[in-house]
Input
Amino acid sequence: MSEFTEEEKRGFYKAIYSRRDVRSHFTSKSIKNEILSKILNAAHHAPSVGFSQPWNFILIKNNLTKKKIKESFEIEKVRSSQLIEEPKRSKYLSFKLEGILESPVNLCVTYDPSKFGPFVIGRSSIPEAGLYSVCCAIQNLWLAARTEGIGVGWVSILSNDTLKDVLELPEYVVPIAYLCLGYVDEFAEKPDLEKAGWLHRLDLKDVVFFEKWKEKENSDWKEIQEMIKTNLNYA
Amino acid sequence: MSEFTEEEKRGFYKAIYSRRDVRSHFTSKSIKNEILSKILNAAHHAPSVGFSQPWNFILIKNNLTKKKIKESFEIEKVRSSQLIEEPKRSKYLSFKLEGILESPVNLCVTYDPSKFGPFVIGRSSIPEAGLYSVCCAIQNLWLAARTEGIGVGWVSILSNDTLKDVLELPEYVVPIAYLCLGYVDEFAEKPDLEKAGWLHRLDLKDVVFFEKWKEKENSDWKEIQEMIKTNLNYA
Output
């Protein structure tokens, strides 16, 4: 189980670089239970602070639930559009940003801080670490879905209060993600917002610092500084 | 690029199931710049809300910095131990929970909410979505490191104030993770805290609900309910 062959690595990196946030192109093909279980199991094997496994996965296909969430999306989309001026506003409003009704399965991933609590190793100094674990599980799920040919879209334009209400979450449970899952007829080559010219992908050299904040030149790291200046092209 | 072969899937799932939080077994072998760049690039290709790419990666090998972080760890470990009673306290204190000094590279991953801001698509209704993106990047990095034979340990027993101070982070930047990276002479078969009997792994059926919170029986999901009751064994 220890060393990875070149082929195995290639499979892994293919998932990393071809994964997309999917809002359109969903097909009506249903997801087999075996595949759905496999994806959920990958999520459940994410790292968690103090091994607390604080996640839950709520599978949704009820149409009434989906419609309520879609409604919340519409309200929040308009509300947030008021934060920007024309011509950006119209451009923003023209984007397709969710596939709630078109995707066969919706999935809410939640954080339950009470699990194995109150004392969880590694969560006393940084309580947010519990939330972070749930996000790691979501990324596992997202990548696993990609290897199975299933697209995932994360809808964060919605009201968490509505979500809690509709899914009957207790007060202490935090909804972290609302995801749309389904087979797609294509995975875009680049993120939608990059293609649309909304934002560009940063160069790797612009997100890496050495030894402290904003330090871009450091004699102990000379070689890697040079290396990341030439854009790496694995995608 | 679309379909994954069985071999490619195997490579991907191997990363998912053999990844560990590593606190010991680090060797002194240094990480080649090419490999480090590759891992960072995988992190940089995580999903991010509104394509905001709000992460930064601060690479650390300065010994003085490491020592200051280790000191903070020691203080916080003792402080948190006071939250529990014997015999749990002694057991907790006996655990090896970090490899700050032994690992050749430390890495702080931060969240910068000002990037491409203030308006980021998908971050108005749920501002925490920015933090969640950074966590997805961390999980990409963790898995990529595993495929390269490199262990990663996340140290969350430390003071973020100390961390901000030592790495000279501006007030508005949030440190999300402090990671220790290095080659290891083994990846444990199970998480350390599971092996030590501190906590057990939950069954998949205990973390999956149907249509709403706590709903474990739902006629629309009968088949998958049965399926996840038999424990899936991919690990």
